[in-house]
TrEMBL record:
It holds the Pfam family Acetyltransf_7. Coiled coil: none annotated. One of its GO terms (molecular function) is acyltransferase activity, transferring groups other than amino-acyl groups. GO terms for biological process: epigenetic regulation of gene expression. Keywords: Hydrolase, Metal-binding, Zinc. InterPro entries: Acyl_CoA_acyltransferase (IPR016181), GNAT_dom (IPR000182), HDACs (IPR000286), His_deacetylse_dom (IPR023801), His_deacetylse_dom_sf (IPR037138), Ureohydrolase_dom_sf (IPR023696). Residues 2-185 form the N-acetyltransferase domain. It comes from Oceanidesulfovibrio marinus. This is Acetylpolyamine amidohydrolase. Its cofactor is Zn(2+).
Amino acid sequence: MFRIRRVFDGVLPRDARTVEQVQALLRERFPGVEEKEIRQIPAMLRDPLHHRFRAVLFVAESADKLAGFALMLHVPDVGFCWLDYVAAQPGSAGRGVGAALYDRVREEARFLGGIGLFFESLPADPEFCKDVSLRKENRARLRFYERFGVRIVANTKYETPLIDEPAPCPPHLLFDPYTAKKPLGRKDAQQVVRAILERKYGGRCPEGYVDMVADSFRDDPVRLAEPRYATPAPPPAAQVSPQIALTVNDRHEIHHVRERGYVESPARIDAILKKIEPSGLFEHLRVQGYPLRHVTAVHDPGMVGYFRAVCARLGEKEAVYPYVFPIRNQARPPRELPRRAGYYVIDTFTPLSRNAFLAARGAVNCALTAADSLLDGQRLAYALVRPPGHHAERRAFGGFCYLNSTAVAANHLSEFGKVAVLDVDYHHGNGTQDIFYERADVLTISIHGHPNGAYPYFSGFASERGEGQGRGFNMNLPLPDGVDGEAYRTVLAKALKRLARFGPRFLVIALGLDTAKGDPTGTWRLTPTDFEKNGRMLGRLCLPTLVVQEGGYRTSSLGPNALAFFRGLSEGTRERTRNMECAE
């Protein structure tokens, strides 16, 4: 078994090692490739504008070992894709690695649109290739591509050698009709040929060579040779490729406060899943277990230890509600665990139950699994969790929140680069602010209802900007009641400008759907159209993005609003990618 993922820039340690493995395999499978070209792959990934095309690298991996790769070049100013190399490890024949990689390449080319996907392949015809052993290998390669419906571009001088001396095997130009929305026109083909010969082969082309080859395209539409080596299979049905890794706290139901009016219920997760799963945008990931040190890295170990211990001692139907709070003396917690609850909690409606710790720990594991998918090369990830977490501070919990999954994931990602946390829940993310308030490597921004009238009431004011090294790295944008989508986007744009100045490596979004019209805990009026527009704005940042579910309590609108947000997020990311505007 193997999986295919995209490597965006080779900056993260794992990706850097993968790129080195790709370079080694390229040397082995294509010994004629110049070392200079091999060495420039990392630069091609990081700086597309310098090379006048954007490199798209897909790798097939089995047990974290490279099974194969495909390197495609996207040329947006002309509007086509070029398959540079596709290769599998020796001995992997029959495993379908090459076919899976090519399928992924043509899927990406089809999405990017334009003229279509082109590449070269050496000929199997004695007219062009005199070496019998090479012809056999070339025939196998052409057979492979013809099964996909790929065709040789015929009746041109593309096979003319670059130099006067006869070349042993000048390549054919190949075109994959599946990736194009219309037949290949002569002018389009000429543009493609000029771009490839000038940008890829540049100094190797003799004077007049590019014009000669381009002018040799006379047919309109361009003539494509009939398949000679294989019978093409029917093209696959068009489908939406999963773009967002999804982790779900599948044991969240064990935490259920069955009191009338308690809105943080298991139905929230089911309502979202029911709507987003049929969209085809999401790919489920298996949730991994993580050591508790990830939690105690952001939460006071005393609080975590208490939370774990008190939950373990409670019976199936028991619950502890805090009712005594240490305003005068915070240094001496009560000896009895039930009475000690108020020492670590900020309100009276976040009860401790037998399963609260287990459910909160499961939510943390979901967020960490989704965060690690970004480190593995995923661009977008969604941790659909409950209980929520953004009200949980370093040494206190509340607001339905026990452990701050958003902060735990952000802290984990901060080991690999700067992180921006954007909280778009209706309620201020006081816990995330508290945890990162003195840090400059994690920027925290929260757009929320004004604390004069919205929970948690005692934090979220614009004057709270961070302390010590974190001074200036906390931004609160409190808003009044009745905010609509247009007013919200004006403030969101302000937040994104601050985020851009920070220049994060990762973006973590604390997603609250309680900003929606009719939510029982909020006063704003956002609609599905607004959520889609907000998601598109965030997607256009082109950052590896983790979304962690926080609030949202109007069950009937949760699914439509979540789906609209993620459609916008995905499309915003892909729009910028299509136009080569992402800093990859």
